[in-house]
Protein backbone atom coordinates (compact mmCIF):
# COMPACT_ATOMS: atom_id res chain seq x y z
CA UNK A 1 0.00 0.00 0.00
CA UNK A 2 1.28 3.45 -0.85
CA UNK A 3 -0.16 6.93 -0.37
CA UNK A 4 -1.40 7.24 -3.98
CA UNK A 5 -3.37 4.02 -3.82
CA UNK A 6 -4.77 4.84 -0.38
CA UNK A 7 -5.96 8.30 -1.47
CA UNK A 8 -7.23 6.76 -4.73
CA UNK A 9 -9.27 4.18 -2.83
CA UNK A 10 -10.59 6.80 -0.43
CA UNK A 11 -11.54 9.02 -3.37
CA UNK A 12 -13.36 6.05 -4.91
CA UNK A 13 -15.15 5.40 -1.63
CA UNK A 14 -16.02 9.08 -1.30
CA UNK A 15 -17.54 9.10 -4.82
CA UNK A 16 -19.77 6.15 -3.99
CA UNK A 17 -20.88 7.74 -0.71
CA UNK A 18 -21.57 11.12 -2.39
CA UNK A 19 -23.80 9.43 -4.96
CA UNK A 20 -25.73 7.24 -2.51
CA UNK A 21 -26.21 10.18 -0.13
CA UNK A 22 -27.35 12.50 -2.90
CA UNK A 23 -29.99 10.04 -4.11
CA UNK A 24 -31.12 9.19 -0.59
CA UNK A 25 -31.34 12.79 0.69
CA UNK A 26 -33.07 14.21 -2.40
CA UNK A 27 -35.20 11.07 -2.81
CA UNK A 28 -34.35 11.39 -6.49
CA UNK A 29 -31.91 10.01 -9.02
CA UNK A 30 -32.49 12.77 -11.58
CA UNK A 31 -29.40 13.37 -13.68
CA UNK A 32 -27.85 10.03 -12.76
CA UNK A 33 -27.26 7.40 -15.42
CA UNK A 34 -28.68 4.06 -14.24
CA UNK A 35 -26.78 2.42 -17.07
CA UNK A 36 -23.39 3.56 -15.75
CA UNK A 37 -24.35 2.29 -12.28
CA UNK A 38 -25.45 -1.03 -13.76
CA UNK A 39 -22.08 -1.32 -15.52
CA UNK A 40 -20.25 -0.57 -12.25
CA UNK A 41 -22.23 -3.32 -10.51
CA UNK A 42 -21.13 -5.72 -13.28
CA UNK A 43 -17.53 -4.46 -12.95
CA UNK A 44 -17.30 -5.08 -9.19
CA UNK A 45 -19.10 -8.41 -9.37
CA UNK A 46 -16.83 -9.83 -12.05
CA UNK A 47 -13.64 -8.43 -10.50
CA UNK A 48 -14.20 -9.30 -6.86
CA UNK A 49 -15.18 -12.94 -7.37
CA UNK A 50 -11.67 -13.59 -6.04
CA UNK A 51 -13.11 -12.83 -2.60
CA UNK A 52 -14.09 -16.48 -2.70
CA UNK A 53 -10.64 -17.79 -3.63
CA UNK A 54 -7.90 -15.58 -2.17
CA UNK A 55 -7.50 -13.57 1.01
CA UNK A 56 -5.31 -10.46 0.67
CA UNK A 57 -6.05 -8.39 3.77
CA UNK A 58 -8.90 -7.18 5.93
CA UNK A 59 -8.71 -3.81 4.16
CA UNK A 60 -8.92 -5.46 0.75
CA UNK A 61 -11.86 -7.68 1.70
CA UNK A 62 -13.80 -4.88 3.40
CA UNK A 63 -13.36 -2.43 0.52
CA UNK A 64 -14.41 -5.03 -2.05
CA UNK A 65 -17.53 -5.89 -0.06
CA UNK A 66 -18.38 -2.19 0.34
CA UNK A 67 -17.95 -1.52 -3.39
CA UNK A 68 -20.12 -4.48 -4.35
CA UNK A 69 -22.82 -3.67 -1.77
CA UNK A 70 -22.87 0.05 -2.61
CA UNK A 71 -23.13 -0.58 -6.35
CA UNK A 72 -26.10 -2.89 -5.84
CA UNK A 73 -27.70 -0.44 -3.41
CA UNK A 74 -27.32 2.36 -5.97
CA UNK A 75 -28.94 0.25 -8.70
CA UNK A 76 -31.75 -0.66 -6.31
CA UNK A 77 -32.41 3.03 -5.56
CA UNK A 78 -32.39 3.98 -9.25
CA UNK A 79 -34.32 1.09 -10.75
CA UNK A 80 -36.72 0.25 -7.91
CA UNK A 81 -37.09 2.63 -4.98
CA UNK A 82 -36.85 5.96 -6.81
CA UNK A 83 -37.71 4.60 -10.23
CA UNK A 84 -40.24 7.41 -10.85
CA UNK A 85 -37.43 10.00 -10.70
CA UNK A 86 -35.11 8.10 -13.05
CA UNK A 87 -34.51 10.16 -16.15
CA UNK A 88 -34.45 7.29 -18.63
CA UNK A 89 -35.33 9.49 -21.59
CA UNK A 90 -31.85 11.00 -21.31
CA UNK A 91 -30.09 7.76 -20.41
CA UNK A 92 -29.97 6.40 -23.91
CA UNK A 93 -26.39 5.20 -24.31
CA UNK A 94 -26.31 1.71 -25.85
CA UNK A 95 -24.37 -0.30 -23.26
CA UNK A 96 -24.01 -3.32 -25.54
CA UNK A 97 -21.49 -1.19 -27.46
CA UNK A 98 -19.35 -1.25 -24.32
CA UNK A 99 -20.16 -4.73 -22.99
CA UNK A 100 -19.54 -6.68 -26.21
CA UNK A 101 -16.12 -5.15 -27.02
CA UNK A 102 -15.07 -5.58 -23.35
CA UNK A 103 -15.94 -9.30 -23.51
CA UNK A 104 -14.15 -9.80 -26.86
CA UNK A 105 -11.08 -7.84 -25.76
CA UNK A 106 -10.90 -9.77 -22.47
CA UNK A 107 -10.97 -13.05 -24.40
CA UNK A 108 -8.24 -11.85 -26.78
CA UNK A 109 -5.90 -9.84 -24.54
CA UNK A 110 -5.41 -11.30 -21.07
CA UNK A 111 -2.61 -12.62 -18.87
CA UNK A 112 -4.00 -16.13 -18.61
CA UNK A 113 -6.86 -17.93 -20.32
CA UNK A 114 -8.64 -18.88 -17.10
CA UNK A 115 -12.18 -18.02 -16.02
CA UNK A 116 -11.31 -15.79 -13.04
CA UNK A 117 -8.51 -14.08 -14.92
CA UNK A 118 -10.73 -13.37 -17.94
CA UNK A 119 -13.46 -12.01 -15.67
CA UNK A 120 -10.88 -9.78 -13.95
CA UNK A 121 -9.65 -8.55 -17.36
CA UNK A 122 -13.22 -7.98 -18.57
CA UNK A 123 -13.92 -5.90 -15.44
CA UNK A 124 -10.82 -3.78 -16.03
CA UNK A 125 -11.80 -3.08 -19.65
CA UNK A 126 -15.43 -2.42 -18.77
CA UNK A 127 -14.56 -0.11 -15.87
CA UNK A 128 -12.45 2.06 -18.17
CA UNK A 129 -15.56 2.97 -20.20
CA UNK A 130 -18.38 2.44 -17.68
CA UNK A 131 -18.76 6.16 -17.02
CA UNK A 132 -19.55 6.93 -20.68
CA UNK A 133 -23.37 6.62 -20.29
CA UNK A 134 -23.15 9.15 -17.42
CA UNK A 135 -20.95 11.56 -19.40
CA UNK A 136 -23.24 11.09 -22.41
CA UNK A 137 -26.23 11.97 -20.23
CA UNK A 138 -24.52 15.14 -18.97
CA UNK A 139 -23.67 16.18 -22.52
CA UNK A 140 -27.20 15.41 -23.69
CA UNK A 141 -28.91 17.50 -21.02
CA UNK A 142 -26.08 20.06 -21.23
CA UNK A 143 -25.71 20.36 -17.46
CA UNK A 144 -25.07 18.57 -14.19
CA UNK A 145 -25.93 19.40 -10.60
CA UNK A 146 -22.93 20.41 -8.48
CA UNK A 147 -23.22 17.29 -6.36
CA UNK A 148 -23.18 15.11 -9.50
CA UNK A 149 -20.05 17.00 -10.59
CA UNK A 150 -18.38 16.33 -7.22
CA UNK A 151 -19.24 12.64 -7.64
CA UNK A 152 -17.71 12.56 -11.12
CA UNK A 153 -14.61 14.40 -9.94
CA UNK A 154 -14.00 12.00 -7.04
CA UNK A 155 -14.63 8.98 -9.26
CA UNK A 156 -12.35 10.26 -12.03
CA UNK A 157 -9.57 11.19 -9.59
CA UNK A 158 -9.43 7.65 -8.25
CA UNK A 159 -8.02 6.06 -11.40
CA UNK A 160 -5.76 9.05 -11.98
CA UNK A 161 -4.26 8.46 -8.52
CA UNK A 162 -3.90 4.77 -9.39
CA UNK A 163 -1.68 5.80 -12.31
CA UNK A 164 0.64 7.48 -9.80
CA UNK A 165 0.44 4.30 -7.71
CA UNK A 166 1.46 2.19 -10.71
CA UNK A 167 4.42 4.48 -11.45
CA UNK A 168 5.43 4.22 -7.79
CA UNK A 169 5.09 0.42 -7.78
CA UNK A 170 7.06 0.11 -10.99
CA UNK A 171 9.86 2.20 -9.51
CA UNK A 172 9.85 0.76 -5.99
CA UNK A 173 8.61 -2.82 -6.37
CA UNK A 174 9.39 -3.50 -10.03
CA UNK A 175 5.74 -4.48 -10.32
CA UNK A 176 3.47 -3.51 -13.20
CA UNK A 177 0.39 -4.78 -14.98
CA UNK A 178 0.07 -3.47 -18.52
CA UNK A 179 -3.62 -4.34 -18.84
CA UNK A 180 -4.53 -2.33 -15.74
CA UNK A 181 -2.21 0.53 -16.71
CA UNK A 182 -3.43 0.98 -20.31
CA UNK A 183 -7.10 0.68 -19.28
CA UNK A 184 -6.51 3.05 -16.34
CA UNK A 185 -4.95 5.65 -18.62
CA UNK A 186 -7.88 5.37 -21.07
CA UNK A 187 -10.30 5.69 -18.14
CA UNK A 188 -8.58 8.82 -16.83
CA UNK A 189 -8.34 10.41 -20.29
CA UNK A 190 -12.12 10.06 -20.70
CA UNK A 191 -12.55 12.37 -17.71
CA UNK A 192 -10.17 15.08 -18.93
CA UNK A 193 -12.81 17.22 -20.61
CA UNK A 194 -14.96 16.95 -17.49
CA UNK A 195 -12.00 17.78 -15.19
CA UNK A 196 -11.43 20.93 -17.19
CA UNK A 197 -15.06 22.02 -16.84
CA UNK A 198 -15.07 21.08 -13.15
CA UNK A 199 -12.04 23.20 -12.35
CA UNK A 200 -13.03 26.19 -14.50
CA UNK A 201 -16.74 26.22 -13.54
CA UNK A 202 -17.85 24.15 -10.54
CA UNK A 203 -14.95 25.12 -8.31
CA UNK A 204 -15.72 28.77 -9.06
CA UNK A 205 -19.25 28.33 -7.81
CA UNK A 206 -20.89 28.02 -11.17
CA UNK A 207 -23.11 25.23 -12.35
CA UNK A 208 -21.61 22.79 -14.78
CA UNK A 209 -23.27 23.88 -17.96
CA UNK A 210 -22.07 22.98 -21.40
CA UNK A 211 -22.04 25.60 -24.15
CA UNK A 212 -25.16 25.24 -26.31
CA UNK B 1 3.57 -14.29 -9.16
CA UNK B 2 1.79 -11.58 -11.14
CA UNK B 3 -1.62 -13.16 -10.62
CA UNK B 4 -1.67 -12.91 -6.84
CA UNK B 5 0.32 -9.70 -6.93
CA UNK B 6 -2.22 -7.53 -8.70
CA UNK B 7 -5.17 -8.83 -6.68
CA UNK B 8 -4.12 -6.64 -3.80
CA UNK B 9 -5.40 -3.66 -5.79
CA UNK B 10 -9.05 -2.73 -5.92
Highlighted features:
A: two-stranded antiparallel ribbon, 8 helices, B: 10 residues, 1 helix, ER-Golgi transport (chain A)
Question: What does the secondary structure layout of this molecule look like, with pairings?
Answer:
The complex is a heterodimer of chains A (212) and B (10).
Chain A: H1 3-26, H2 34-47, H3 58-81, H4 96-108, H5 115-129, H6 132-141, E1 143-144, H7 146-173, H8 178-200, E2 208-209
Antiparallel strand pairs in A: 1-2
Helix pairs in contact in A: 1-3, 1-7, 2-3, 2-5, 4-5, 5-8, 7-8
Chain B: H1 2-6
Pfam families (chain A): ER_lumen_recept
Protein name (chain A): ER lumen protein-retaining receptor
Main location (chain A): endoplasmic reticulum
Describe the structure.
The complex is a heterodimer of chains A (212) and B (10). Chain A has eight helices and two strands; from the N terminus they run ααααααβααβ. In chain A, helix 4 crosses helix 5 (115-129). In chain A, 71% of the residues lie in helices and 2% in strands. Chain A has helices at residues 3-26, 34-47, 58-81, 96-108, 115-129, 132-141, 146-173, 178-200; strands at 143-144, 208-209. With 212 residues, chain A is mostly helical. Chain A has one domain (3-209). By secondary structure, chain B is mainly alpha-helical. Chain B is 50% helix and 0% strand. Chain B is elongated, with a radius of gyration of 6 Å. The model of chain B has no long low-confidence stretch (mean pLDDT 64). Classes of the chains: A mainly alpha (212), B mainly alpha (10).
Question: What is the gist of this entry?
Answer:
The complex is a heterodimer of chains A (212) and B (10). With 212 residues, chain A is an all-alpha fold.
Amino acid sequence: MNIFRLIGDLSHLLAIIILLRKIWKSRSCAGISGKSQLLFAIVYTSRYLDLLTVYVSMYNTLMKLVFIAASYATCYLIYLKFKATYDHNHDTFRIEFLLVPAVILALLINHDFMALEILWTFSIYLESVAILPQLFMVSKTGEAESITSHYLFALGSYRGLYILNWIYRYAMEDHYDLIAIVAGVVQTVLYCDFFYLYITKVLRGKKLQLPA
Amino acid sequence: GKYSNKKDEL
